[in-house]
Amino acid sequence: MEAREQREATRNVCPISKALKTSEHDRVHEFSVRVASPLFSVEALNPESVLKFMDLVNNLKHSSRRGWSLLNVENHEQIAGHMYAMGMMTFLIGDESNLDRFKCLQLALVHDLAECIVGDITPHDNIPEDKKHALEDKAMKEITSHLGEDIGTMIYKLYKEYEAKETPEAIFVKDLGEL
């Protein structure tokens, strides 16, 4: 089975993809029922927008880390796999550490979200660093716009913290990304 066929087969069993193939009314109703819990403020979240957000993020499961593919590395990781691995590594932070483990987990999970729109831009693309950051910033604004002001702003601020390396947690997670 070719890589493209494998991605399509995976998409067909993905709950988000299945939800996106149902009628708009059924999809929104099903989502509204599922998020009606104390964990979510249903009033603050537009189910259609959240599904759009999840559809964008789901693309990361099928997007290669281009640096590895450019080097012809077989079975290289996908962007979502990279983010997941970084998130799992944050659990290894010791209790005696001054780092906020939860903040590190959050940073690891949001650091490459922009790539679901702009793709994995590598130095081989010859895009100046300031242009790359501008593209990613615009993408993050688009992505987070689907999550309402509270959650969207929180994720955008985490992304900006990571990019600026303005906290010990951001520096640590940036270093994890280099492993």
Task: Explain the overall architecture.
This is HD domain-containing protein 2-like Protein. This protein is mostly helical and 179 residues long. Helix content is 64%, strand content 0%. The chain has helices spanning 3-13, 15-21, 24-35, 47-58, 66-70, 79-89, 101-110, 115-118, 129-144, 148-164, 168-177. Helix 2 (15-21) packs across helix 4, helix 6 packs antiparallel against helix 7 and helix 9 runs antiparallel to helix 10 (148-164). It is globular. It starts with a helix and ends with a helix.
SSE arrangement:
Elements (H helix, E strand, L loop, with lengths): L2 H11 L1 H7 L2 H12 L11 H12 L7 H5 L8 H11 L11 H10 L4 H4 L10 H16 L3 H17 L3 H10 L2
